[in-house]
Structures are given as structure tokens and as C-alpha cells.
Amino acid sequence: MNEPTTLTATAAAPAREPITCHVLDLTTGRPATSIAVSLTLLRPFGPSAPLTAVTSSDGRVNQWSGEAGSSLSEIFTNLSEHDDGQMVWSLKFDTGAYFGKNQTFFPEVEVRFFVDAKGGHYHVPLLLGPWSYTTYRGS
Question: Quick check: helix, strand or coil at residue 74?
């Protein structure tokens, strides 16, 4: 009888960001790639300098870049110690550049949402067309 093989990880997987997003192009039924996205803390203590990313080949943003020394996880940790820990964030998607000049009604889509700094993961999918969009809290 063979003994089960034990697998060991050689490198730890990067921690998941507390806020992620995903964009699907409803005209093609495929992920919307290369869309510039910014994430800004509006309340409390905001607006912050935006964190930025570009959607991947799967239409996802799983990691954010910011000014030197600032990370989304650090912001969550610091804010969980203040107030009631409730934050308001803004995601902005550069839809005008994605669809092209005169090819969309929305040059930019902004989604504002509440977040509890005390825990949880917030995934914000955007279902996008040139003349409409919808969003929801994903998992």
C-alpha cells in the first residue's frame, strides 16, 4: 500500500487584498482586459492618494500599487483601530479608454461602497457595456 505524499510549499502565497474587482465586457461575454482602475479611500480621513491597477487577462484586479510605503492591507489595519472602522471607498474604471472615443456613454464608471475595516473581503464585479453597467458585492 502506498503512503500519501506530503506536499510542502516552497513559497507562501501572497495575502489576498481586502478589496478586489473584476470586469466583464457584456458585448463580448469575455473579461475586460487592460482597464485602468483606481481605488480611493473617501471616508474617514479621505480622500486618500489613489491606489492603482490594470485589469489582467482575466479582467481581474487582485493587487494594488500605491505611493511608496502605502498598501491596502496597512490602511485596513490602521483604520480598524479608529472610529467605528467603517470606510467608504471609490473604485473608478477608465471605461472611455477601454471602449474608445465616442464608443461609450460612460467615460468613467465610479462605484462607491461601504467597507468594515474589522475584517472580510470585498469583491466588486462590474458587468460593463458601452451604454450600461451593473455591479454587486461578489465573494
Answer: helix
Select from 11, 21, 121 the least CA-distant residue to 73: 121
CA distances from 80 to 60, 75, 117, 120 (A): 26, 8, 5, 12
Amino acid at 62: N
**pLDDT tens-digit series, residues 29-59:** 999 999 999 999 998 877 888 999 999 999 9
Cα angle value 8/10/11 (rounded, 5°):
125
**What is the rounded distance in angstroms from the CA atom of residue 32 to the CA atom of residue 57?**
8
CB-count burial class (<10 Å; 0-12, 13-18, 19+) for 104: buried
Q: Could you give the dihedral angle defined by the CA atoms of residues 25, 26, 27 and 29, in that order, rounded to the nearest 10 degrees?
A: 80
Q: Taking the model in full, what pTM does it have?
A: 0.84
Q: Which residues pair with 25 in a beta bridge?
A: 30, 128
